[in-house]
Design a protein that fits this description.
By secondary structure, this protein is of the alpha/beta class. It is built from ten helices and twelve strands. It binds adenosine-5'-diphosphate. GO terms for molecular function: 4 iron, 4 sulfur cluster binding; ATP binding; ATP hydrolysis activity; ATP-dependent FeS chaperone activity; metal ion binding.
């Protein structure tokens, strides 16, 4: 919008009733986007008005996982986000041709996020989820500037190494004075399809370690909100754009995520 002043971010205004959660992880591939999408779908199924900003600029995958294949449209000077499964969603992938990679640098990312938050017509949302890129990059700082009241949700696997980087990513909240709402442990074991045993593919204890570490660094109690097992149905649901919390809400992953959604 050349020439005009930047719009204010409605979610950052005093009196905003929208709860904003920024979903963060230390590294990629731990299931941050899968968790974001399923939490959003579970909350929408519970009757909440939910939006998701896919701020994982370099690894945008939220629209596909959510089954949101529509394109944003423009009405007057606002962007209307497509929605799927009751969730409004906007992603950088909707504005890049084909599968072109995004090669933007910090200032452009900040600008994109500003537009996603202020120029998209979200309506009255109960909850807005931001799927952050992995790590402690520019976007995390931008989120803190644009929506200081956003609470951080940290996703990790049970693995020691993953937990360490997740804790580092979470501790950025200390610098930005943001609240950490809790830790989600994903890929917490694989229930054996042949017996009752749990196979701890990625070890154990990562969620607890991150929560304890963040409790120490922040000086406030950071809880583990839940543990999501490895579940083929979750992966399939992501590939097909049909979140497992909707297609199979009582599956191990589906019920774990619905429980976590109920705590947010
Ligand atoms: P991130 O956003 O952290 O990079 P994704 O959500 O893209 O991670 O997940 C990485 C891959 O792992 C995806 O193929 C996803 O379907 C799969 N996945 C994530 N969590 C689980 C789980 N609990 N069970 C099975 N597959 C999972």
């Amino acid at each position: 919008r050349g020439g005009t002043a930047e719009r204010e971010v409605p979610f950052a205004q005093p009196g905003s009733l929208t709860r904003v959660y920024a979903v963060a992880s230390g590294k990629g591939g731990v299931g941050k986007s899968s968790v974001t999408v399923n939490l959003a779908a579970a909350m929408a199924a519970d009757g909440l008005k939910v939006g998701v900003v896919d701020a994982d600029i370099y690894g945008h995958s939220v629209p596909r996982m959510l089954g949101a294949y529509g394109k944003p449209t423009q009405v007057e000077n606002m962007i209307m986000p497509p929605s799927a499964n009751g969730v409004k969603v906007i992603s950088i992938g909707m504005f890049t041709p084909g599968n072109a990679p995004v090669v933007w640098r910090g200032p452009m990312l900040h600008r994109a996020l500003q537009q996603f938050l202020a120029d998209v017509y979200w309506g009255d949302l109960d909850v807005l989820l931001l799927d952050l890129p992995p790590g402690t990059g520019d976007i995390a700082i931008s989120v803190a500037q644009l929506v200081p009241n956003a609470e951080i949700l940290v996703v990790t696997t049970p693995q020691q190494a993953a937990a360490e980087v997740a804790e580092r990513a979470g501790s950025i909240a200390v610098q930005t004075h943001q609240k950490i709402v809790g830790v989600v442990e994903n890929m917490s074991g694989l229930p054996c399809p042949h017996c009752d045993e749990m196979v701890d593919v990625f070890g154990t204890g990562g969620g607890e370690r991150v929560a304890e570490g963040l409790t120490k660094t922040t000086g406030t109690q950071v809880p583990v909100l839940g543990a999501i097992p490895i579940d083929v149905r979750l992966r399939e649901g992501g590939d097909e754009g049909k979140p497992v919390v909707l297609t199979d809400p009582d599956s191990p992953a589906g019920s774990a995520i619905r429980t976590i959604a109920g705590k947010l």
